[in-house]
Amino acid sequence: MKRFQSRRGEAIWIAWVMITAFMVAMGAIIYNWSRSYASASAEQVKEKAYREECSDVAISIESACQDNYTLTLTVKNLGRVRVDKIVVNMFDAFGGGLSGEQELPVKPGVSAVYTVLKQGPVYTVKAVPALRKNNKWVVCSEKEAEYSKVEYC
User: Fold this and answer.
1) DSSP SS3 for 21
2) Which CATH class is domain 57-152?
3) CA 20 to 30 Å from 151, out of 64, 88, 94, 108?
């Protein structure tokens, strides 16, 4: 009879150990999930703060001309913040596209000349400003400038 009670006590002990191990495992899973969720939320907040920087950005393409191999743009910064890079999207008459970029800072109220390599004739040019904040590029795609009917130099 004592053997039966002894085994019964061991079974209860094993059950408690298994429940405790299960709760520790669940706690670790919930901790990892909440940590990744919090870091993702922090990244989203940073991204929104960076996107607000784009509200002070405004550029215009004053002139554009091309030769056989390059496209030359004169871009003016009309905004209140410095633009660190311009991403140039070039389109031919049929809508085919090519992209190029040049890292050339443009201070507010100043014009800069960009020269970008190209392939084939360019009909339309779109320039997208980009800012560098905390070693991250913020591309202000909603602030792009467009220039149509690019002539030969």
Assistant:
1) helix
2) mainly beta
3) 108
